Structures are given as structure tokens and as C-alpha cells.
Fold:
Amino acid sequence: MNRNDADVLVIGAGIAGQEASLNLANMGFRVLLVERDASIGGKMIQLSKVFPTLDCSACIATPKMSETARHPNINIHTLSEVRSVVRSGKHFDVTIRRHPRYVDETLCTGCQECEFKCPVEVEDQYNYGMIGRKAIYIPFNTAIPRVALIDIDQCILCGACERVCPADAIDFTQEPEDITMRVGAVILATGFSLFQAGKKKEYGYGKFRNVIHAMEMDRLLSPTRAYNTVLRPLDGKVPENIAYVLCTGSRDISMDNPICSQVCCMYSIKQAQLLMGALPLADITLYYIDIRAFGKGFEEFYQQSKDMGVQFVKGKIAKIEERENGDLGLFYEDIEHMGESKEAQHDLVVLSVGILPGTDLRSVFEDLRLELDPSGYIGQPDELVHPGRTSVAGVFVAGTASGPMDIPDSILSAGAASAEAASYLRSLE
Amino acid sequence: MREKIGVYVCHCGGNISDTIDVERVRETVEKYEGVSLAKTMLLACADSSQKEIVTDIGENHLDAIVVASCSPKLHLNPFRATAERANLNPFNYVQVNIREQGSWAHSDTPKEATEKAIRLVEAGIARVRHSRPLIPVEISAVNTAAIIGAGVSGLRAAIELADMGTEVFLIERDHFVGGRVAQWGALAPTDQDGGAIVADLFSEAKRRPNLTLLTGADLESVSGCVGSYQLSVRIRPRYVKPGIPGDALAQAIQRCPVEVKNEFDFGMALRKAIYLPYAAAVPSTPAIDMASCTRCGACVEVCKEHIDLDQPDETMTIDAGAILLNTGFDPYEPAEGEYGYGQHDRVITLQELKRLMEKSGEKLTCAGRSIEHIAFIYCVGSRQKQGDNHHCSRYCCTAAIHSALQLKQKFADIHTFHFYRDIRTYGKQERLYEASGRQGDIYLKFSEDDPPRVETDGDDLRVHVHDLLTDGEEITVEPDLVVLVTGMVPSRQESLTQILKVPVGRDRFFNEIHPKLRPVETVIDGVFISGSCQGPKNAAEAVHSALSAASKAHAKISKGKIELDPLLATVDAAACEWCGKCLDICTYDAIQQVDTDGKQVALIIQAKCKGCGACAPVCPQDAIDIIGYSNPEIDAMIDALAEEVV
Structure:
């Protein structure tokens, strides 16, 4: 047996991938967890607080990450991609490409000396470019593994990091490495991608600087926030009158995404509540089509935000214009008042962007024919009875890889996938 | 006494340090007796911080640690594991909560919050100085699960657990399985028939040798604890034996003189006292409803071999390592007169409409009238401002819209009007809403303060609404049928709640420990909740949570043993004079009277003791201590809390 062989391969180490891995590891199965990014954690670790309990997201996600990383039955490969999955008898032969970090993971102590010395400053994608990072960097403070990597496209090869590293961990000679292994089952937990706000041209994202998207706002509100307060990007003014544009990129045929993203109403309401705490004087208005507060405790959370003074206006924003002072004019049909065309002024606009399918994995499965649903999410041929199953026997799906869902639902979906994978693995014995 | 203590004060990102001056806390507690080192940390729970603590313990030979951060409910175990990795006994660790009890509670008064934090941390240090190294209690676990409720989620959990290798007892109160899904007919979004899904699951369940289905079964009592619960189950007889020939059964049913309303059809159809609720019900052996049977013997005459009116009740005991509750929901029952319900026979609920659709031929008819125009009124019994049900019932928008689509498909000339507040066809279900719009269904939005009014005029119905989509203009619809889109309330399970003591939330559904960290677990170790008894869910979501619970339960009990906290009561046998007061107050049956060298004393049964502490103060001899909360520890904490903050 190859030392990399495992009972189950889990692709994606966001909250669903971690939950599925932990469930299976706790049953005694050996899990190989593969993550494309440099750290495990996925999208949840970027969030400020989470609805409807307003728990601090990092406080839930960080220990879970640590538990995953420390579990004796879980073997993690970060900065790695699954290249192919091929059936071989009862098992799957899997090839994984480990991308180079240019830093020896086993030597780096995470001391950050290299970061201080590196002369190259680029946008920090973890904070959506609101602040900078170096070309050699640790993705975020609580990253796992907490070791540096070099962004080789930005690196000028000056060697400053190599000279300062006390552990001699910098290694520019690293090459991509393919490793192969055999697994019994596969769980797809590849998550979602965020709707690109710039695609909705009439909202001016990318052109009007005071139009931001909701993930950026979550970073601004996070305990590890960039500016320690909420500032609008153009001039650093503290906003006083904030608008949320719901259904940006969702329920929108013109964006080729007719379905609802399931999380935006609630995260917008959550942000509105957090903003009322952070900026007690600010007015906050949500422009919506329907408020979908459907989960446990969600409706109560929505009613609470109304009691706190959040304004709700039924109307889809048609277009946004920028004023000279950076304020924004929002044009909308006021549906509850004769459908009259109206214009509202705000000094910061947050686009409640929806979610879209993540990576298309079909080519990885080659001849096994992994099927997608009409929206491009991983298909569930028997979603009512066997929600974890995909079109390929032995391959299961967890979390938002199968469709939009919030964190509690992702966790339950991961639980379902791990149960079905466990039964399948037992049937191989 | 621990004399080399490490203290870590966490910023929690900014959750703590935005209010509390963590550096001042650190400086102050550093001087406290027994403290070797004190540090602040950005996020103590981060992997890198845990590594730093491990290194500190090794390099400084620390003999105890304190982490001042969030509630121990959240992160006690990760830090215990950190201590363990540094070869420090995990019980030489104390967690101090300066977030929920500090920064979050006192965000308006940072100075006082900081002083409170100092006192709390000092009390924690005082406690840890007295801490002793302990070994967890290990108990054995039987790899058997008892599942209460054989609706779709219970059936699914049972099959999955059986396949994973756990023995399963599936306990159903009713004589037939399938719960609410069996009643539903076509399910959204796949149009699969609920009854057919139930029949498939039933035959799958029957194929598993390690799965036992008990129908007509009531849970009478439960004792024991995680790893080994003893469930006493009373099984009510069907009075009909399996294998009854079809023609004999048909005759028996025909001869039965008793007619009662069939609950399965919400009383819209009748059944006999010997009955199957619907033709394809499973198990397919009928049952006799003794509450309405007159014991006339007409059915026995037809088939003596298979019908026995004197079948006795049976009681059995099940030894199970874990219990899964899948007790489901009840549809909200509108009050008499709520939108005309109970006053006009063409005002019905969505659940009743579904039965009507199943039973109608080519034309949809209700109370003798052929139906063409239907008014759906949403949020009946949900999102109530007044009333008990503040929650959204989650499944009903999609269910109503799916029904409108089915109606159009199945019956000609149906027109539907939807009186709604918000349409919540979240996620992919949006496609159904879109399809409903395309087929010409009409939507009218009402305000929560101004609901539609249902008016009856002789046999005719009128619904008036101030439609927000047309500037609040009053619109009147004259439908043939009014359908109340009724939500979910938890299934009536008072006895079960009493037997198992599972807490319920403000919405009266069973409460999980944490919606994200432990969504299917309860505060009762080894008792899991899934499906709609935890909160409203559609069928697919109920199955997700059922499988999740199966996964957690299997991981818990399949290894043969379970580790429990040793923070339990302990009796000083020399001081004990056996008076029985501790036995009386213990709610966990964890105290036993035993003979030790001719003396009667109390003994704690470790597997059952929860360390709740109720027994310690009632002991007149002061012979009981709670390990980890002994008198010297509590005294030291009180002293530390009472000290002036310098």
C-alpha cells in the first residue's frame, strides 16, 4: 500500500470539507483532504460574524480547522489540485498536483521575517485588495498550515527573503509535483464562487469606488478588519447612509442566473445589524424583492433588524449613478407605492452578490461522467432519498458544491455525504 | 498546589480587546501568586497559538495553564487537547470566560469590564492552583441505536446506520410508517410520489437483518446514559396477523360496521375500524383501531386465523448506545374561524388540498363543487406577530407553488391566486416560482398588519386584500376554494419530552447545542435530533439532517467505548453516614447505597453522574465533593473575586 492511500478523498477544505473529513475520521476512516488554496478554511474563515446567532465566524471556524489539521486520521495537502480520478476495480486511482510554495513547509516557522523584508507589495486577495500584502506571505493570521508561500507571478527574484530566513526554508527550485494514490470513495466539497459584481454593469462596481460588494463589507466588519472601522473607499469618509442592493446577480435572467442564492438576504440583514453597532448614527436601507428569512431563527432575526431601525424597501435597483462628491443615486421602481420610478441618495452602496457554482470538475473525472444540474452545480440524481450521491457511484457531494446553501445547511449536507460515503466504504469491505 | 502557571489572555480578534484592555489584564495577573508567565494572544484558538502554548509548557515546565477567552462551552476541549500535546494533564487547565461574561456583556463600560476580567482571570488562576491531574472515565458503548419516529427521516437514518454496521431499532408510534411524506403525494421539486418513496424505504429497511422495525410502539421510559440507554417500549397489537389473504381482508373490511373519519385524509374520507390508511400503506397488514372497534366479531368470522381481538400488549427493553429523535411535525391547525376555516367547507388547508388532489379524478371537486378558481393564503400559522408561531415554516411557499403547478398539470381550467407576504422559494426552488409566473398564476402581496379577509355569502366565497403590488388597492377575488397555506408546528410529544428531558427552543421545536458546531446533538449526551422535530424542513432537508445524525451517532458508539469527563461527584466514605439525602436529590439515578466494611455509605455511579453538583450541598456531613469544584477550589475563587483590583 502506498503511504498516500486513503479510504476517502475529500476535495475542498472549506467548512463542508472539514466537517465531512472529521465525521469520517472519527469513524476510523483514513481521509485525504486536498485544498487548492494555501490554507484550509474556505470562505467561512473570511466572514465577520454569522447569522442568526451572530457568533464570531473565526471563533467557530478556527478551532474546527485546528481539529481537522490535528486529527491523526486526516492527511492534508494544501496548494494542491486533483488532476484526475479514474476507476480501477472497486477503487479510484487519483492523481494530485502539489503546486510549489517555494518555501519548505517542514522548515518554515511562520516567523514572517521574509514578509517584512520583501520589497514587493501587491493587493491582498484575502481582504479583497483593501490592503496590501507582500509577494512572500502567509495568507492570513490563522492560516493552516501557518507557513509562507511565494506568489511567483509577482516575485522579482531579489532573494531578500532567502537571505533573511532564519530557517533556510526558501527554495526557488521547487517544481510542481504529481502524486498518485488509491482511495475507496471521493467527497466533492469544492464550494461556490462569488458572483463577479462588475458584470452587473448598471451598478457601476469597479467604476464607482463607493460601490462595494458584501464580502468586502464582511471584511470591513470582521474582528481582524483592515481599518478598524467602516470607511468608504473613495475618500475614507465614515458612511452615514448605506444602501444594500439585494439579488445582485441572483434571480436575474440577464445574468444567466435565474435561481436564488439562498444566503444574501440573511447576510445583508446580519451586516445591517453589525453596522448599527459599528456606526450607530448611520441609516441603513435594504432594497429587496422578497426577504427570504426561512431557516431556524431567521425570521426572528429579520424582525429584530426591523425593530433596530433597518429600513426595507421592496424594489429592484435598475441603475446606479455617481455624484460629484462620490455619493450615489439609486434608481428603482417603488413597488409598494404605485410602482413609481424613484431615486434615492446614499453615500455607500453594498451589492449583495449571489453565489455561483465553483470549479467545474467534470474533466477531472474523465470517463466517469460526473453530471451537473441545469445551473452548473454538481447533480444529485436522487436528491430526496440519497442527497449525498452524485451520478458516479462512490463519489459524493457536500455543501455548496451541490447548490446554494448557508453554513448550517452546509454542515448538515456534509453530515449526509459522510454517512453515505461511510456506508459505501463498508460495502467495499 | 500548582506553582508554575501559564496564563493566556485572548484578544479574540477584537471581540474581547475592543472593549477589554487585555494588556492591562496581562500585566496585572502576571503578578498573581503561582504565575510563571502571562501573554496576550490575537486568537488563542488558532493553530499557531496552540503551538506556542505547547512550546511554552515544555520550555518553562509549566504545571498548569489558564486561557482567558470565550465560553468554555465553545472551546474547552481544544485547549485541553493542547495541554495534552504538551504532556500536561488536560485537567490542569482552566478556561476563563471574558467574552460572553466580559466584553460582550459590558461593551459600554470598558474600564469596569477590564476590572471584571482581571478578577475572573485571578479566580481562574486560584482555581487552577488547586487542580489535580485526572484520568477520564471510560465507559463501554453498545453499537445499537434506537430511532424514535419512522417518517422519512427516521427511515433514512435507520437504513444508513444499519449499513454503517450499527444495529437499529426503529420505533414508530403509528401502525404504519412514512409519517407526513406518505400523506403528501407529489413532492417538490422532483414530483416524486411521497407514498412511493416511503414504500421503497420500507422495503429497503426490511432487507437489513440488523434493523428491527417496531410499529404501534410507545416509548414508556428511558434509563441509563450514553453508551447504554435502556428503553422500555410498549407495543400495541394490530389484532391482525401478517399474511392475511387479500380477499379475506377485503371482506373483513367490508363487513366491519364501524365508520370513522380517516385521519390520513384529515377526516375528508371515512375508514372502517379495521383499516389500512391508504391502499399502499406499509406495513401492508391492516390494523384494528380498538378505540372505535365495537368487538362485534364480524371481521373475525371472515378470517379467524388472521384476526385475533385478544392479542395482548407486549413490552420490550432495548439496550441502545444512542437515541435519535425523528418525531417530525404537525401541520398548524387553523383556529375556528381563522380565514373562515371550520365555518365554510371550501376553506381547507394545504395539507387537505394535497389529499384532495390525490383522491380527485379528472375534475378537482370539493364539498360537491367543481373547482376552477383557488385562492392560496400564505403564512397561516407562521410568522405570527400575535400568537405562538413567530417562525417561518420554510417549506410552505415552495409547497404551495408546487401544488399550483401540479394542479394545472393534473386538472383542466384551474386558475390560482396567491396572497403572500414574501415568496420564499430559496435556492433552486426559485425555478418553480418562475414556472408558476409563466403559467399565469396571480400573486397579490399583503402586509402583516393587514391580512386578507375571507367573506362568505351563502355558499360563495370572497377574498378581499389590499394588494401592496398595486399601491394597496382593495382587490376582491371570488374563488371556489380557499387554501390556507399552513405551516409546521412540532409534533405533540409531551410524554417524550418528559421522558428524555430534551430541551425545546422558543419556537417549541427541539433545541440543538449549536446550529453550526453541533446541529444534531442535544445537551443530553447520546441523544440526537433530526428532521423536522428540530425545526421546519422540507423532505430533502430532513433527510440531510437525519443522515447527519446517523453519522454522528455512529462515530460516537461504534468504537465500543466512550470517554467521559471525570469532573464528577465523589464521596468520602469515612465521613458518609448514609442518610439518603443525596439519593433523593439526584436526577440522574447516579447514587447507590452500598455496604463498606459493615458501614452503609453512598457510592457514585460514574457512568451516570453528570457532575451537576446537586448532591454536594445537601450532604449534612459535607462528605461529597465535586472533582474540579471542591470546596478549597471554590473558596480560593471567591477570595480572588473579592480582592481589590490594583
Notes: The domain at 144-236+313-328+491-557 of chain B is CATH 3.50.50.60 (FAD/NAD(P)-binding domain). The radius of gyration of chain B is 31 Å. Residues 364 and 370 of chain B are 6 Å apart (CA to CA).
